[in-house]
Structure formats: structure tokens, C-alpha cells
Design brief:
The protein is built from 2 helices and 15 strands. The protein is mainly β.
Length: about 220
């Protein structure tokens, strides 16, 4: 398991966080498991490398000790490019934690030539031990036709992973394209035809914030 070293952070606020990031450090906060909330800083390059390899659980060394932690939330700037802040939670070995994991939609729905593929969820809340947390939950959509929907209850969870979302929540589906024509008589007797716009594709996305998270 990867080990990152952290430093205790005593200065807080927007200016302190900005200076920290300019020096190549990343503001972080550690909490959970009944312990105190601790303000830390991480080497930004090391943490970016951790994310690049999809590692969410790692050992954290700070203040003379080592603690297994879980990446709970990562905050980016409004462009989604620059890391601003990270929330870490203590993760005892073998004890389940509750986290959100992304959905990975695989396949090309067969109903898309006639309908619109709509994603209602981008992630789901799960309960699992730190080592059992998957990078993503795979959703196979190849067989979806117009009018078909997938619910949370249709998702296949890896062994040892429990989905906490409402089983009846719609994950995705194929909606028929709306083509409504209204014909009206114009002032000069000409037929006026209008077409409604295609249905809006609703999806949940992630976005960062400009301001550092509370606790910096």
C-alpha cells in the first residue's frame, strides 16, 4: 500500500491555502473514527500521482505515526484542472466505510438511433471495507432500447460491496425523441410549422469550487 507523508498545518484561511499551493503543497483535513479533526498538507505531486493510479486508500504518516486513510472528497478549481483541497477520513482495516463511487457506463445502447440515452445518476453511495472499494460500478447499457430503464436494483455490486442508494432510483434509460408539430394558419394563409426541441439530457456532474473547503 502506498504511503504518503503529511505535515501538520497551523495556518488557515484563503491566503494561507493559496501560499501553500504555490509552494507545491496541498491543503488537507483528516477526520473520522472518533478522532480529532487535523489540518494537514500533502505533497501535491505525490497526491496527484495517487489519483492517477486510482488509489483511494493509502497509509498516511504524520506527527510520528501512521494511519490508514481513505480519500473522501477532492476539490478542484472551476475548470477542474487544479487541485485545491482534499478531505481524508480514517479507515480502520476491516471496518466498512460509506463512500460515493462513480458509475462506468459500458456499451452503446441499441435504442439510441431512435431515442436519447439519459443518465440520471453519475455515482452511487456504497458501504465496503477500504480494500473492497471499487474504482467504479460498471453499468452495461448495450441492450437498452427505447422505453427501457435501469434502476439501482439492477446494478451488479462487487463482492463485499453494498449499495446504499434507493433500489427504485432510475440510473439511466432511453427516452423517445419528442417530435411535436404544431400547424397554424398564418396571416397570409400559409401553414406555419414548429418542432419542439429534443428532451434535455439530465445528468449529475462534478464540479470544483474556487474557494478552498471549510477547514483550511
Amino acid at each position: 500500500m502506498t504511503t504518503l507523508r503529511a505535515e501538520i498545518r497551523h495556518d488557515h484561511g484563503t491566503r494561507a491555502a493559496y501560499s501553500l499551493r504555490r509552494s507545491g503543497r496541498l491543503p488537507a483535513v483528516l477526520y473520522g473514527e472518533g478522532g480529532d479533526t487535523v489540518s494537514l498538507s500533502l505533497d501535491r505531486h505525490e497526491f496527484e500521482n495517487l489519483l492517477r493510479h486510482h488509489e483511494r486508500v493509502f497509509d498516511l504518516e504524520y506527527d510520528g505515526g501512521k494511519q490508514q486513510v481513505l480519500v473522501h472528497e477532492v476539490q478542484f478549481d472551476h475548470l477542474g484542472d487544479q487541485l485545491l483541497h482534499v478531505d481524508l477520513i480514517r479507515a480502520s482495516r476491516g471496518k466498512k466505510v460509506e463512500v460515493s463511487v462513480p458509475l462506468d457506463f459500458v456499451g452503446h445502447p441499441k435504442g439510441t438511433p431512435k431515442g436519447e440515452f439519459v443518465k440520471n445518476l453519475q455515482e452511487v453511495e456504497i458501504s465496503a471495507t477500504p480494500r473492497s472499494i471499487p474504482e467504479a460500478i460498471v453499468v452495461h447499457v448495450h441492450d437498452l432500447d427505447v422505453g427501457d430503464v435501469l434502476h439501482v436494483s439492477d446494478l451488479e455490486m462487487p463482492e463485499g460491496v453494498e449499495c446504499l442508494a434507493d433500489p427504485e432510483t432510475v440510473v439511466c434509460g432511453i427516452h423517445a425523441r419528442a417530435e411535436v408539430e404544431e400547424t397554424a394558419e398564418g396571416e397570409e394563409g400559409e401553414a406555419v410549422s414548429t418542432e419542439s426541441a429534443e428532451p434535455e439530457v439530465i445528468g449529475k456532474g462534478k464540479g470544483g469550487e474556487d474557494e478552498p473547503a471549510e477547514g483550511e
